């Protein structure tokens, strides 16, 4: 599906395409960038985009954004995902950045924003706790005022890529007596502070993406509080809203369907009855992507005319993740017996990976993408949001 | 990027809405369906007066030149009101074929009467063994001077009992499943040798089994190229039927949501149960996706884009499954009331079920979508 673009926007699209082709680092083209690259390698593309001024499409110009229209932001998103480039770290650029320029003070903006844009600071998200998943407002990590500092004690979990992080933005309880949503503050904590410990969590795909983060008597300067004390829930919700809108993942799904078709072609002779079943399943998931893409285009068109879809955007998170899970499952099924094997990772420690190259990441992708319907507000929570805010139930 | 409707198109939508709101509520429809003919000549006249029967037909042929976006708008509203009059059969199928394949003489002879609402048409392509295959034609047409003589059987031809004319596919050469060798013919429905056995369809329409024995027919379009013409005709019809289905889905979702907010069990409204809330969210999403894909299809059809036939199959399948899901759940959430003839919900269920059969079911079209990809 192609967009009807003005000549200027079409030229912009061609620029983006050419820029990716000429500049995307070859060493980032690995089977599974999220788990196969070192921190330094992950930051290569970030730095190139920063130099070009394209690192933060969402940000207003005065804070270092490129000042693009909604259409151009969409074109950029579409071209980069189609080309399969690794997106810049979302926790820095998409999440904490907008919170800082929207709710932070001038000192905080000047201190943190340039370092987010340049990639000098790597951020992670201190939201979930062992007892607070979907019910995030029950966070128990405590911050107690002590002169010019808060003393923070608690346990954050599912913290993605905390092993690389320089900073963590945390939801902490500053008023234990208030109602759950009213006693929360939004605090920025230096990961090098004494009392911060990171412990890896290995997931079912064998990879190390997420962590436990323990905070024991960590002293955090009061100047690292965002906005007002006890108003953190407002900032947290704002941030989650940003997270959800870019989750349709059309480009990624489209790339994986192409991969799936190649594998089915190579693995299954046409006279195999299973071939027909795959053909049908592929067509159905392809149509799922097409319908979601058409919906995305409809919403982008509306946005460009000033109509905000609001909470209905949760449907992109729901369908985008369900569809990608279906695709990774089909790929895993398509490689047949080799679906038993899993690549080298901390947990499997496989030195030898059997079967054709195209199947080497199928198992881990299939396993890893089970997370998609859980994180960023589980799909059940997203359905609650639509039920309440769109359907009025 | 999305469809930004023109002022004219918005005007068309609001005038169709007004007409149907004033004259075509559920009780009015019930009386129409129960009448002897099963459709309303009076309604048909008001459609003609409003210009709906001329909407998609080109200005050269005497129409309003609104193209397929105008029929998309009309069909969405028809879907909301469960309109039973043979608009698709007469205007989209017959009108479309006459306009694209007909000779100048045929166009002048037939199209003005369609626009004026004076004639009703039906398209007879299905046969006992054909299922959804346009090329599977056993009816034979043999040359007889200027005319052709048709013999064979056609099945489940919607609107045939009302029709003044039929467009019939028949084989002029080749074997039964050959793509080539099928031609289209205009047949006077009252011609000698035609025998009709009429029946009612599940969605309140009238259809017929047709027996043709040495019936005179007039060639429409190039001989032997009927399947190609029918395929393009089916694509357009799919665009219209998908729009109709999406209109019906919107009504079902609205009715179900409303019901869930008023119906009480265990002392609370059933809409307060999370399992039903999530079901209705999935119905909402299914409708949103179907609406987007339906608009995308009709835009592509009106721009005559490459690969649009594959897209039509894809949309017919995806929207068919979505419609089935919404209709199933609307009946389920209405409980026993959903089963009653009295409530409109079951009638939307039946219309969506019929749409899912017409011109191929979702399973047929998903495979066609896949196979056209492999062929590309």
SSE pattern of chain B = HHHHHHEEEEEEEHEEHHHH
Distance between the termini of chain A: 35 Å
What's the mean pLDDT score of chain A? 92
Oligomer: heterodimer
Strand order of the largest sheet of chain A: 1-4-5-8
Discrete helix count of chain A? 12
Described by strand count, sense and barrel closure, the largest sheet of chain A is:
4 strands, mixed
Which regions of chain A are unreliable across 5 or more consecutive residues at pLDDT < 50? none
Write the layout of secondary structure elements.
The complex is a heterodimer of chains A (393) and B (376).
Chain A: H1 7-23, H2 33-36, H3 39-52, H4 70-83, H5 90-103, H6 106-118, E1 123-126, E2 142-146, E3 149-156, E4 167-173, E5 184-190, E6 196-201, E7 210-221, E8 225-226, H7 232-245, H8 250-267, H9 273-304, H10 314-334, H11 362-368, H12 379-389
Parallel strand pairs in A: 1-4
Antiparallel strand pairs in A: 2-3, 3-7, 4-5, 5-8, 6-7
Helix pairs in contact in A: 1-4, 4-8, 5-6, 5-7, 8-9, 8-10, 9-10, 10-11, 10-12
Chain B: H1 7-23, H2 26-34, H3 41-50, H4 67-81, H5 87-101, H6 104-115, E1 121-124, E2 140-144, E3 147-158, E4 165-171, E5 182-188, E6 194-200, E7 206-220, H7 226-262, E8 264-265, E9 268-269, H8 274-302, H9 308-334, H10 344-355, H11 362-375
Parallel strand pairs in B: 1-4
Antiparallel strand pairs in B: 2-3, 3-7, 4-5, 5-7, 6-7, 8-9
Helix pairs in contact in B: 1-4, 4-7, 4-8, 5-6, 5-7, 7-8, 7-9, 7-10, 8-9, 9-10, 9-11
Brief summary of the model shown:
By secondary structure, chain A is α+β, with helices and mostly antiparallel strands.
């Amino acid at each position: 599906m192609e967009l009807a673009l003005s000549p200027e926007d079409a030229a912009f699209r061609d620029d983006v395409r050419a820029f990716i082709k000429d500049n995307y680092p070859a060493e980032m083209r690995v089977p599974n960038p999220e788990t196969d690259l070192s921190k330094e390698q992950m930051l290569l593309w970030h730095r190139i985009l920063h130099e070009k001024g394209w690192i933060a499409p969402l940000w207003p110009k005065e804070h270092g954004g490129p000042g693009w229209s909604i259409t151009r932001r969409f074109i950029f998103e579409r071209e980069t995902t189609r080309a399969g480039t690794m997106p810049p770290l979302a926790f820095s650029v998409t999440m904490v950045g907008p919170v800082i320029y929207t709710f932070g003070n001038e000192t905080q903006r000047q201190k943190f924003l340039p370092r987010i844009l340049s990639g000098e600071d790597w951020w992670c998200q201190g939201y979930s706790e062992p007892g607070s998943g979907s019910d995030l407002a029950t966070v128990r990590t405590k911050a107690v005022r002590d002169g010019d500092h808060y003393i923070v004690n608690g346990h954050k979990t599912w913290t993605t890529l905390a092993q690389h992080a320089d900073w963590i933005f945390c939801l902490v309880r500053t008023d234990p007596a208030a109602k759950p949503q009213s006693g929360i503050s939004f605090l920025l904590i230096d990961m090098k502070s004494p009392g911060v410990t990171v412990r890896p969590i290995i997931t079912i795909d064998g990879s190390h993406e997420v962590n436990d983060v323990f905070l024991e008597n960590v002293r955090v300067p009061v100047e690292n509080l965002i906005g007002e004390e006890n108003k953190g829930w407002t900032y947290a919700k704002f941030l989650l809203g940003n997270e959800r809108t870019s989750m349709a993942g059309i480009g990624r799904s489209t790339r994986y369907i192409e991969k799936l078709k190649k594998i089915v072609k190579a693995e299954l002779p046409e006279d195999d009855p299973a071939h027909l079943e795959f053909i049908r399943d592929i067509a159905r998931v392809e149509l799922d992507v097409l319908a979601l893409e058409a919906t995305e285009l409809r919403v982008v068109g509306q946005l460009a005319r000033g109509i905000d879809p609001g909470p209905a955007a949760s449907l992109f998170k729901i369908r985008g993740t369900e569809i990608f899970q279906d695709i990774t499952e089909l790929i895993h099924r398509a490689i047949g017996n080799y679906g038993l094997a899993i690549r080298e990772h901390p947990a499997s420690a496989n030195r030898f990976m059997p079967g054709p190259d195209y199947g080497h990441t199928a198992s881990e992708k299939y396993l890893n993408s089970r997370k998609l319907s859980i994180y960023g507000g589980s799909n059940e929570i997203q359905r609650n949001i639509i039920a309440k805010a769109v359907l009025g139930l | 990027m999305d469809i930004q409707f023109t002022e004219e198109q918005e005007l068309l939508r609001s005038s169709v809405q007004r007409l149907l709101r004033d004259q075509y509520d559920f009780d009015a429809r019930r009386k129409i369906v129960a009448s002897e003919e099963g459709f309303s000549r009076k309604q048909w006249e008001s459609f003609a007066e409003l210009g709906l029967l001329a909407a998609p037909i080109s200005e050269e042929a005497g129409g309003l030149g609104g193209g397929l976006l105008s029929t998309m708008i009309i069909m969405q509203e028809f879907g909301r009101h469960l309109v039973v009059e043979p608009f698709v059969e007469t205007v989209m199928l017959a009108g479309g074929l006459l306009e694209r394949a007909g000779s100048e003489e045929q166009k002048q002879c037939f199209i003005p009467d369609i626009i004026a609402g004076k004639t009703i048409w039906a398209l007879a392509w299905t046969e006992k063994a054909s299922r959804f295959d346009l090329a599977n034609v056993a009816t034979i047409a043999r040359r007889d001077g200027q005319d052709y003589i048709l013999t064979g059987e056609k099945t489940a031809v919607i609107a045939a009992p009302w029709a003044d004319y039929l467009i019939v596919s028949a084989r002029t050469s080749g074997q039964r499943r050959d793509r080539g060798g099928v031609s289209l013919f205009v047949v006077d429905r009252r011609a000698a040798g035609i025998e009709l056995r009429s029946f009612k369809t599940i969605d309140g329409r009238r259809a017929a089994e047709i027996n043709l024995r040495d019936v005179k027919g007039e060639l429409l379009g190039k001989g032997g190229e009927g399947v190609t013409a029918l395929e393009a005709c089916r694509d357009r019809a799919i665009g219209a039927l998908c729009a109709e289905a999406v209109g019906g889905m919107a009504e079902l979702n609205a009715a179900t949501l409303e019901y869930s907010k008023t119906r009480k069990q265990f002392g609370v409204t059933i809409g307060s149960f999370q399992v039903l809330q999530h079901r209705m969210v999935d119905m909402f999403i299914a409708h949103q996706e179907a609406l987007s894909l339906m608009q995308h299809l009709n835009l592509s059809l009106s721009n005559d884009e490459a690969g649009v036939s594959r897209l039509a199959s894809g949309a017919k399948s995806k929207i068919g499954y979505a419609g089935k899901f919404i209709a199933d759940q609307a009946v389920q959430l209405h409980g026993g009331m959903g089963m009653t003839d009295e409530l409109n919900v079951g009638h939307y269920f039946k219309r969506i079920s019929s749409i899912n059969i017409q011109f191929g079911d979702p399973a047929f079209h998903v495979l066609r979508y896949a196979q056209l990809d492999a062929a590309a």
